[in-house]
Amino acid sequence: MKKNAFLFLTGGTVYPALEIICRGRTDISMAAAGGLCLCLIDRVCNHRMKSSPISAKCLIGSGIITTVEFATGLLVNVALKMNVWDYSALPMNIMGQICVPFSLLWFVATLPAMGLCGLCEKAPFLAE
Q1: Which key words tag this protein in UniProt (predicted)?
Q2: C-beta pairs of 43-47 under 8 Å, 24+ apart in sequence
């Protein structure tokens, strides 16, 4: 439980911080999405797919992030009309909520995410 809480808080801090650096703004929904993504990447990519090739893990990690981003977008952007982001101007987008260029970015971002999750396995203060 300690590790999952740490991963959720870390993902919930790092992702919004990156968004502020890149876009100059963020939304609290991005903290929830970032935390959920990091926990799911740890569970799926680092545990269930332990012996899979790194490319397969990155593909699944990208799918996890893209799925969470789409669900979050449907809630905050479409249902609640908060307009947190809009990928409509980008190629191969779906409803302006997800797009291929960002899914490719998430493929690459899965690598450091898995690395961070792996470091947490070795941290004695996160032992259950």
Answers
A1: Membrane, Transmembrane, Transmembrane helix
A2: 45/110, 45/113, 45/114, 45/117, 46/114, 46/117, 46/118, 46/121
111, pLDDT greater than 90 = yes
Note down the domain range covering 79.
2-126
pLDDT single digits (tens) 83-95:
999 999 999 999 9
pTM of this prediction?
0.94
Per-residue pLDDT at 128: 62
**How far from chain centre, in Å, is Cα 15?**
7
Helical (H) or strand (E) element with 12:
helix 2-23
